[in-house]
Every structure is written in structure tokens, then in C-alpha cells.
Write a structure and sequence with these properties.
The chain is an alpha+beta fold. It is built from six helices and 15 strands. It folds into three domains: about 60 residues, Structural Genomics Hypothetical 15.5 Kd Protein In mrcA-pckA Intergenic Region, Chain A, CATH 3.10.290.10; about 90 residues, Pseudouridine synthase, CATH 3.30.2350.10; about 110 residues, Pseudouridine synthase (2-Layer Sandwich), CATH 3.30.2350. Strand 5 and strand 6 form a beta hairpin. The chain is globular and about 60 Å long.
Amino acid sequence: MSEEILQADELGTGSRLDSWLAQQFEELSRSYLQKLIKEGRVQVNGKSVKSNYWLNGGEEIRLDLPELEPLAVEAEPIPLEIVYEDGDLLIVNKPKGMVVHPAPGHAHGTLVNGLLYHCGKELSGINGVQRPGIVHRIDRDTTGLLVVCKNDLSHSHVARQLAEHTITRRYRAIVHGVIQEEEGTVDQPIGRSRANRLKMAVDPVHGKRAVTHYRVLRRFAGYTYVECQLETGRTHQIRVHMTYLQHPLLGDPLYGARKSPYHLEGQTLHAGVLGLVHPRTGEYLEWEAPLPDYFQKLLEILPV
């Protein structure tokens, strides 16, 4: 069992406890967290409460997570938007809200469940049964392109490209505030936040080097539409770096500076371009995924 201690900040004001916790623990489902609350494993300011407790902001929340049991990962006929496929690779355009690999409370409906159904045993096993074929991941509420490896040869080859920072990964994002410069680079190390272990943070002492290049695509009244290119691939890298610049992503429940007026489900972040050297042919290939509908509509209604 492990104990997590969180502080409900002003963003949590007016949120239901179970909903707020689901935003903090992306890998755990709301129903699983409701079960923990019902079992008395969640305390607010030292007292057990119900799932529908409304946060006022500033509360101390303690969560006792039980030891996790290994999951039996099942193949499920989940529709997948496959952008490219051959005997070695699969490029998937992941939708918003889909978790990449199974975890407690998310044993079903994940990308891995769908991949097992689509590919059968044609997936690399390097990352084990719960993450077959997965070399990198994108967050639950981030949309866009993800590479999946069908065998260990391609997995090793793609993983090496990731380690050497030679894979092209360009994202589109909408951030709070108006960025004045046309482009820039954030070269700041990222590590686990010492204030909240659920978050990552710029950490010059203990963090690992992280580099994000960004350029402005369009400015709005109070917002900026940007393209971000990853040179490295740390957890939550774009979300952390843009927050470091005081331009957090619109809709980001974990790093956002304020509530979104657009009733968004998670950050406005889309992995639009992915390029790599094919592990078997040695040819450089690049794919592009169009913006999801919700993102495109936002660009049409944001004030100018």
C-alpha cells in the first residue's frame, strides 16, 4: 500500500472529489476511485467523505492506494484509426480520452486492448504483457500519432531513435496568454515534482534534460495557437515547459493556471506529425494527423 498526499488548489474549487481525483490520477478510472472513496481509503482534512463531496480549495487529501494486482489484458474489438501498417510498424491516431495501456480501473478500453485484437500476437514483447508493442505514450487526453512495434527488432530500433532524439514529433497546442516572440526554445530539465508527485516540474538539480522548440501559428485575444517540436521526450514535457513559460495549455486540469471557459476535457494538445527511420528499410517516413474536431472548432470560436 502507498499513501499519496495532495493539496486541492484553487482550480479544484467547486469540483466533485471523485472527478478531481480522476484528473490528478490519469491512469485510474473515476469508478475505481469511487470504490476507494467508498472503502474509506480517501480522507479530506483527516475525515472520510463521499464521492460527491465538493471541494472548496485548500483541502489536504490523503489517498491510500492498495497494492496493485497484475492485470489479465484482454483483446477487445475497439475501433482504431490506423494511419499506416506493415509487418513491422503500426501508426495509430489516438482519440481523446483513450488510455494507452491498462492500469487499475482502466483494464478495458485501452489502446493496448484494441491492439491485441487487431494484431493478435504480432506485437513486440519488450515492455511486457501490459504494454506490448508500446515504445512511447501520449497522455489520455492528448490526441494524435503513436508508433506501435510489431516485433522486438522494430521495437529496439525505434527505441534507439527515441533515445538519440532523431524521431520527429510535432504537436499543436493552444495556450493561455499571448506569446510575443515568433518562436523560441525551452531547454530546462524536468523531474518529478517534489511538491506533488503526480506532477512533473522544471528541476535544475534532479531533473533530466528536456528541450522543446515552439513557434507561434496564430494569436488570439488571451490565447496563442502554437506548434511544439520535441527534441527530448520527458513525461508531460510540453505541458510542463509551456507552464514554465507562464503559458499553460488551455484545458489542462493538472498544470492549468485557471479554469477553461470552453468546458474542455483535458488539455488542447495534438500529436500531429510523426516521422522516423523505418527499422527494416532504412527509409525516413513521416505521417500527419489532422486536428480533431473539437480542436478545429475551438480555433474557429476563440476571440481575436
